User: Fold these one by one.
Assistant:
Number 1:
Amino acid sequence: MCGIVGYVGPRDCSDVLVSALQKLEYRGYDSAGIAVFDENDAITTVKTEGKLQNLKDKLQIVGKPNGHVGIGHTRWATHGEPSDVNSHPHSGARVTIVHNGIIENYQEIKSFLVGKGREFLSETDTEVVAQLLDFYYDGNPIATIDKVMGEVVGSFALGIMFKDFPDRVFAVRRESPLIVGVADGEAFIASDVPAILQYTKDYYLLEHDEIATLTNDGVSFVDKYLNPIEKELKTADWDQEAAEKGGYPHFMIKEINEQPEAIRTTIMPRIKDNLPNLEECGITLEMLKGFKSVTIVACGTAMHAGMVGKYVIEDLARIPVNVDIASEFRYRNPIVGDGDLVIIISQSGETADSLAALRLAKQKGAKILAIVNAKGSSIAREADMLIYTLAGPEIAVASTKAYITQISVMYLFAFELALANETISVAECQQLTESLQKMPEAVKYVIDNTNEVCKKIGSKLITADSLLYIGRGLDYALSMEGSLKLKEVSYIHSESYAAGELKHGTISLIEDGMPVIAVATQTDLIEKTISNVVEVKSRGANVILVCTEACEQKMKEGIANYKVVIPNTHELLMPITAVVPLQILAYYTAIHKGNDPDQPRNLAKSVTVE
Ligand code: AGP
């Protein structure tokens, strides 16, 4: 999604903006631009389609605007194709803005402005806001912003410059995220914390409809009634190093390698005496008693983490669990209410559909537990109960360490829920928790020992047009994530199927040489899975088996073309280690195909629009 930055201070503004935008590249974008007050206090805008390198090249050619106040943007196209003219910043005669989000009533406003004789250069909803600000501008920026806020409908974060105020940047948001960073004599705006970490760790979270004014004397805020407000200064606990590649060629492989530490950091503070203890998150055993049902709502990878959660919660806590895609849940009049628990899982905490699902479930009277990575994000703030995954910044678009920490939290939560509802004994819970504590080491072992074989298999997959992932039970939940990971970064079509469902249609797709990735980690289901593997193999599939040592022993020699064997751990916990080769395989397939795994085409890291 779009990235916004802004700067006021003594540094070279163009350099700061480009460098901060670079830290937001992971969000996904297709064009970039900056606008800076130059030495004559005129606003100079430079923008272009394509990656930041194109912007840097253009700045070299046309000359970098010299100044100390400015705004910048990376655009992920929604209204209007990626092009120079549709790139941000956009301007009216006296106003220049950058925008993240969607203005839902922009057509209506545009017609109104066209009726007043205004002309538009671009197809964007953003230019409509720039022109509306200009239309209402009466010399008072805050009052003008407030007036426009009353008329626009939708989600937005805006960085705004008024021609008459060359010493300041204004910022406002509704739904879309925006932070305001501060350091001695300088101030920043950004869509996300990593953009400013190179300059400061101190920031304010801008709340809905608050307006910030940034000057080099400091930052001031007004609330939606335009009353001045004091806000709590936050300090980021991520440092710059954590948001950089640290010697790895890509963030994706760096983040895969960070998984053992991410699990450890996430689970250890929530375990006491070999038992889960969520008091650190303000969650007591008492609070978890007596839920009638659990509904897990999320998108993409986070939803797949929910699928693992379903198996584990149902197995241990014996409470029925539904897993729902947030974009479906929010429009379906879902059956949740008093006595039900709704779990929202999100790395960014800003996914528009997941946030809307949270609000709907809350309004219907359900209790909301959020499992979120980004501190202080909207989903984190609006939930009744909150467990942070402590994965640190996840920069690659393809989620890896966020997923592994999400499922680690799902396990801890399921153990605690089962304990609260007395469906497992303390001794059983201790045994499970002990096994969970061994997972960081187990994941490290799997990373170290499957890298080479996955690299080799990845090189064989690049010619495939399509492939299947199959598994049963937890292995099915896991193959959904394996399939998504491969699709995202390799651009090879794949489907995940419950292995037992193949015969009901999908097996007709199997033809000579089609790769089928079979996940087999559950010994109680292994005989069934073997039958399915034999069925596809005998129809010409190239079988890649990802299995445990125990499952491998049950397989006949020659059943698979390639095998990735991982050590046995507690079978309920197997998704934690078994996901690793699936991630590494996706990574190397992308690399062998020459794709950039960190910024896959058409994708954005944080999906803050519907
Ligand atoms: C997965 O690799 C993707 N990045 C995507 O499916 C992601 O999990 C989804 O968009 C949800 O994002 P969230 O966790 O930030 O809510």
Number 2:
Amino acid sequence: MIYITRREHFNAAHRVYNPKWSDKKNLEVFGVCANPNWHGHNYELFVTVKGKVNKDTGFVVDLRMLSELIKKQIVEKVDHKNFNLDVSFMKGTIPSTENIVREFWKQLEKPIAKLGCRLHCVKLQETENNAAEYFGE
Ligand code: NI
């Protein structure tokens, strides 16, 4: 089994807050990420798939096809968008890095299986210091 990773980039805005809580409590828990007027991140998305190497190509997957798939399923829906307002699959979900990787997984798992490999990990780097990874469980 070989694992191969494709990186994609997007920019998006969000506000991390719990609508059930007061502004004061949101500020205590989430700090400046709860700023009512939004803020943005330069996100780096890493999608790792696993599979056997095709003898004819030497590939687990054609990375151009994987890139196109990630762009169609994720990047086109989130790039230069607001996670709270614009992204239908994030509706009702606090757009923390943890929740975003889980929702991205749901968008990617089945289409990636059609490429003849399996999704292994969705990693989202929100800042240089913060990243979340999801392995489907
Ligand atoms: Ni943030």
